[in-house]
Specification:
The chain has 122 residues and is mainly alpha-helical. The chain has four helices and two strands, in the order ααβααβ. The longest helix is centred in the middle third of the chain and has 20 residues, at 65-84.
Length: 122
């Protein structure tokens, strides 16, 4: 997304008709400051686990590495929510589209949110 594309998006968002699609851990996810009407909703499709590089794989194999790997993904979800809610009067909707956000199976019982999801998002 170039600077002209972002400027165009900002104008359209303030006017009320805009949609910005981006990937987790990309420039739009971490490098652009969207405020108030510029960010009112966020869909997280799937769990945004870190890319499996050699370094990440070594950390996953270390003691408690699986917990670290899941915590990194939940941190990304918290950051996405933080883009929507910048101050006390701000609002937005965070839609989590993956059954893993609902907690462990079986689905017949009520499931608590994952323990590594930020407490203010549970």
């Amino acid at each position: 997304v170039g600077s002209r594309g972002i400027a165009s998006y900002r104008s359209a968002a303030v006017a009320g008709q805009a949609l910005l699609l981006a990937v987790m851990r990309g420039k739009a996810a971490e490098g652009i400051d969207l405020r108030d009407a510029e960010a009112r909703g966020c869909f997280v499709v799937g769990v945004p686990f870190p890319q499996l590089t050699a370094e990440v794989e070594l950390r996953r194999q270390a003691p408690n590495g699986g917990r670290w790997y899941e915590a990194e993904a939940m941190r990304q979800v918290s950051q996405a929510a933080g883009r929507l809610l910048r101050h006390q009067g701000d609002f937005g909707a965070l839609i989590l589209l993956d059954t893993r956000f609902a907690g462990p199976l079986p689905p017949a019982k009520p499931r608590p949110p994952p323990p590594l999801l930020a407490p203010w998002l549970r």
